[in-house]
């Protein structure tokens, strides 16, 4: 409980000092450092309602954002001096001699994550305590001053190499708040220091797929509040690693607004530009000390991209959601939490509530003091993967006969069941509602439906219902609002040989890339 309270209060402080200040420049940053011109659009004061809706419907992700979204499930690795002090946030006075993961094995980390189905690993290369997991030339407060490998080791190097060997993408978290560095608070000087550290990470460790920032900020030893040079940071990244997405204090990826692991049931990737102001994102987060902090509840603004929101915007951006959560109550390893690892069933529920709600899941797995992912965490991840593998093993939509009430000339309904995201069905122009019916060869037990839009054409669907043919009539089994890149919905198991998806409302002619029908091994209502 104390660890949870400590993290909450630290986060509140970070918001007060960092995120609110940074939001003043975030609107400009979203455009100045956008990955492409396709993922934002201006709204003219003379645009009609129909023209605004059309602009929103046709906004699409940049290549970097699209490639990132398709990863679906990624890993956060919180590992630093805090692992050895049993703290969540260090204060920068920790002696590097404490850092000594005698059984450190980056390949064990990567094997565990790959087996769990994760596609990218983001490493905390430097947390707020300022301790660097690489032998930075800019400070001695790093692994080179530790007894681990006699000061000759490099955690970042070994993790990056292990990721490449196993085909995982590699990303870095670099805290802007450095509670050890003496020049912190001397804003111009520290900003150059921070950009130099970024440069070390982005030039010495191969391809970096994601650079992850938070807005943590405080006063330096001089008593002055640090002012971050976000434009300068972004410029370094775009120059050295242009294919990387920048999250969360950045123009490419948005924090969902909670650390519970549960995203919105209506999640728009197209939002008003004001959503790139970090105080807007942080406003729905836990702001007060509470034992409820990490329980699955909706702590976010429910409406961020509806028609009502976009019709009063002056600019729109493609700004997709990332959902972060830890497999344990804390973000760093604590022996006292070995019995509090989330169960496989809980992790599956989080998966459905993040990946299954048009978001990417960033699941934190903190290695222990040995430098290994603990056996309890490994067991839960294996259990989660087993459940998902069992579910995904057979897509009952494969081979179905598919008909639609409307299809654009040149497109084929069979595309929604071919297992290829780049092919798609689309309704005729001018059509904002349509029905797809799937006739199966035989009756199947089904309790999960997967829907995917072709987001390269935009996010369009606003409301849908799913019916099953049961006992000679159509029975509604579930419903939803947004789809986006992926929507997964569980419902009470049915036995049927006919399913229909009724798109009730869409911002322009709807498009579906994939439909999946599955039978989950888990019981649920």
Task: Please explain how this structure is put together.
This protein is an alpha/beta fold. It folds into two domains: 2-35 and 61-265 and 321-392, Glycosidases (TIM Barrel, Alpha-Beta Barrel), CATH 3.20.20.80; 401-518, Sandwich (Jelly Rolls). Helix content is 26%, strand content 23%. The protein has twelve helices and 19 strands. It has helices at 2-32, 49-58, 63-69, 82-85, 106-115, 155-166, 187-204, 230-240, 278-282, 307-310, 344-352, 375-392, and strands at 40-42, 73-77, 120-126, 169-174, 210-213, 245-248, 254-255, 270-272, 315-318, 321-326, 359-364, 401-404, 425-426, 434-452, 461-470, 473-480, 487-506, 511-512, 514-518. It has an eight-stranded parallel β-sheet. Strands 12, 14, 15, 16, 17 and 19 form a six-stranded antiparallel β-sheet that branches. The longest helix is centred in the first third of the chain and has 31 residues, at 2-32. It is globular.
